[in-house]
Amino acid sequence: MRDVHAPLILIADDARDIRDPLASFLARHGFRTRTAANAADARTILAEGGVHLAIIDIMMPGESGLSLCAHLTRTSRVPVILLSACAEETDRIRGLDHGADDYVTKPFSPRELIARIRAVLRRVPAELPSPPTGRRRFGRFVHDPTRAILCDDAGRDIELTTGENRLLGAFLDHAGQTVSRARLLELMRGRSPRAYDRAVDNTVSRLRRKIGDDAKPAQVIVTEWGGGYRLVGAVETVE
């Protein structure tokens, strides 16, 4: 008899020869599963609720898995494991930027994937505290986390990726404090530092460019050698 309390895993992959055997394998190991051949079908399933974790293939026809991942992390607390045939570090970092919790390359071992699923479910609580939704000012910028933008004093809107938006929110939450890379990854979404060893550094570099803080040494997001990063300056809530 199927355990109605077992974690429900959504598998979104256009390749039936991957999607269906994986669903059967997960079911044999105590998970409930639902499958989708594209992002549109996945969105329908996700809208019904109850999904504990989504496994999403990056290369799908129509909307990409990266776009679906970004939507999911903006609108829900469902963790995401991305599947991809690309194994380069830059591809893993792109996955983080779009909000993924882990990244698995094809071909993969189903047993290893189960271990990754269980690890993500342990790391990401079922109910995470909601991130701040109010706007906050630092320097000449106002951060709007709901819209994932920065607005400068000239009225220019600067779009942020999911990773940049979450990372900036973590810096604003801990203004004036040195925050380690590992802790920043946890604050962004409970990720394992081993999965994205250089992701924070790359995201910080992009944030610095967007706020004009890319001169050396940086003045706003300061590198604390051996420690991590620190946001310098006052942070104010904007009504």
TrEMBL record:
The modification 4-aspartylphosphate is found at residue 57. InterPro entries: CheY-like_superfamily, OmpR/PhoB-type_DNA-bd, Sig_transdc_resp-reg_C-effctor, Sig_transdc_resp-reg_receiver, WalR-like, WH-like_DNA-bd_sf. Residues 133-233 form the OmpR/PhoB-type domain. Pfam families: Response_reg, Trans_reg_C. SMART domains: REC (SM00448), Trans_reg_C (SM00862). It comes from the Bacteria. CDD domains: trans_reg_C. It comes from Paracoccus angustae. Keywords: DNA-binding, Phosphoprotein, Transcription, Transcription regulation, Two-component regulatory system. Gene3D superfamilies: 3.40.50.2300, 6.10.250.690, Winged helix-like DNA-binding domain superfamily/Winged helix DNA-binding domain. This is Response regulator. Residues 133-233 bind DNA.
